[in-house]
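Exercise 3.2. Students should predict the tertiary structure of the chain below and write it as C-alpha coordinates, then compare their answer with the key that follows.

Predict this chain's 3D structure.
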Amino acid sequence: MKNYPPDFKADAVALYQSRPGATIKQIAADLGVNPETLRNWVRAAGASRPRGRGVQAPTEPAVALEAENAALRKKVRELEEEREILRKAAKYFAGETRW
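Answer key:
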Protein backbone atom coordinates (compact mmCIF):
# COMPACT_ATOMS: atom_id res chain seq x y z
CA MET A 1 0.00 0.00 0.00
CA LYS A 2 1.43 3.36 -1.04
CA ASN A 3 1.28 6.51 1.01
CA TYR A 4 0.73 9.70 -0.96
CA PRO A 5 1.50 13.19 0.35
CA PRO A 6 -1.53 15.35 1.20
CA ASP A 7 -0.64 17.93 -1.45
CA PHE A 8 -0.62 15.20 -4.13
CA LYS A 9 -4.07 14.07 -3.00
CA ALA A 10 -5.37 17.64 -3.06
CA ASP A 11 -3.94 18.18 -6.54
CA ALA A 12 -5.50 14.94 -7.76
CA VAL A 13 -8.93 15.99 -6.45
CA ALA A 14 -8.52 19.44 -7.99
CA LEU A 15 -7.62 17.83 -11.32
CA TYR A 16 -10.76 15.69 -11.14
CA GLN A 17 -12.90 18.77 -10.49
CA SER A 18 -11.28 20.81 -13.26
CA ARG A 19 -11.89 18.20 -15.98
CA PRO A 20 -15.66 17.62 -16.14
CA GLY A 21 -15.42 15.39 -19.22
CA ALA A 22 -12.89 13.00 -17.70
CA THR A 23 -13.74 10.02 -15.53
CA ILE A 24 -12.06 8.99 -12.30
CA LYS A 25 -10.63 6.01 -14.12
CA GLN A 26 -8.98 8.22 -16.78
CA ILE A 27 -7.53 10.65 -14.26
CA ALA A 28 -6.29 7.83 -12.04
CA ALA A 29 -4.55 6.26 -15.04
CA ASP A 30 -2.92 9.61 -15.88
CA LEU A 31 -1.64 9.95 -12.31
CA GLY A 32 -0.66 6.31 -11.89
CA VAL A 33 -3.08 5.83 -8.99
CA ASN A 34 -5.66 3.13 -8.41
CA PRO A 35 -9.12 4.47 -9.45
CA GLU A 36 -10.64 3.37 -6.15
CA THR A 37 -7.97 5.31 -4.27
CA LEU A 38 -8.75 8.48 -6.21
CA ARG A 39 -12.49 7.90 -5.67
CA ASN A 40 -11.86 7.70 -1.90
CA TRP A 41 -9.86 10.95 -1.97
CA VAL A 42 -12.66 12.69 -3.87
CA ARG A 43 -15.26 11.44 -1.37
CA ALA A 44 -13.08 12.42 1.60
CA ALA A 45 -12.63 15.91 0.18
CA GLY A 46 -16.38 16.25 -0.35
CA ALA A 47 -15.66 17.27 -3.92
CA SER A 48 -18.36 17.11 -6.53
CA ARG A 49 -18.89 18.08 -10.12
CA PRO A 50 -22.08 19.16 -11.85
CA ARG A 51 -23.99 16.16 -13.15
CA GLY A 52 -25.50 15.90 -16.60
CA ARG A 53 -24.18 17.08 -19.90
CA GLY A 54 -25.48 19.87 -22.07
CA VAL A 55 -28.45 20.74 -19.88
CA GLN A 56 -28.02 24.23 -18.58
CA ALA A 57 -30.31 26.84 -17.19
CA PRO A 58 -31.50 29.22 -19.90
CA THR A 59 -29.64 32.50 -20.09
CA GLU A 60 -31.30 35.90 -20.39
CA PRO A 61 -30.83 36.21 -24.17
CA ALA A 62 -32.27 32.72 -24.64
CA VAL A 63 -35.32 33.61 -22.54
CA ALA A 64 -35.79 36.83 -24.51
CA LEU A 65 -35.57 34.92 -27.80
CA GLU A 66 -38.14 32.39 -26.62
CA ALA A 67 -40.53 35.20 -25.67
CA GLU A 68 -40.02 36.85 -29.05
CA ASN A 69 -40.58 33.52 -30.83
CA ALA A 70 -43.82 32.98 -28.92
CA ALA A 71 -45.05 36.46 -29.88
CA LEU A 72 -44.13 35.89 -33.52
CA ARG A 73 -45.90 32.50 -33.59
CA LYS A 74 -49.04 34.17 -32.22
CA LYS A 75 -48.86 36.88 -34.89
CA VAL A 76 -48.43 34.26 -37.63
CA ARG A 77 -51.54 32.40 -36.40
CA GLU A 78 -53.54 35.65 -36.43
CA LEU A 79 -52.40 36.52 -39.96
CA GLU A 80 -53.21 33.01 -41.22
CA GLU A 81 -56.73 33.28 -39.76
CA GLU A 82 -57.23 36.69 -41.39
CA ARG A 83 -56.00 35.36 -44.73
CA GLU A 84 -58.36 32.39 -44.52
CA ILE A 85 -61.31 34.70 -43.77
CA LEU A 86 -60.43 36.91 -46.76
CA ARG A 87 -60.04 33.85 -48.97
CA LYS A 88 -63.52 32.59 -48.00
CA ALA A 89 -65.03 36.05 -48.51
CA ALA A 90 -63.47 36.35 -51.95
CA LYS A 91 -64.75 32.90 -52.89
CA TYR A 92 -68.28 33.80 -51.65
CA PHE A 93 -68.42 37.07 -53.54
CA ALA A 94 -66.97 35.52 -56.68
CA GLY A 95 -69.74 32.93 -56.59
CA GLU A 96 -72.44 35.62 -56.18
CA THR A 97 -71.39 37.59 -59.24
CA ARG A 98 -71.65 34.58 -61.58
CA TRP A 99 -75.17 34.02 -63.00
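Discussion points: The two ends are 104 Å apart (CA to CA). DSSP finds four helices and no strands in the chain.
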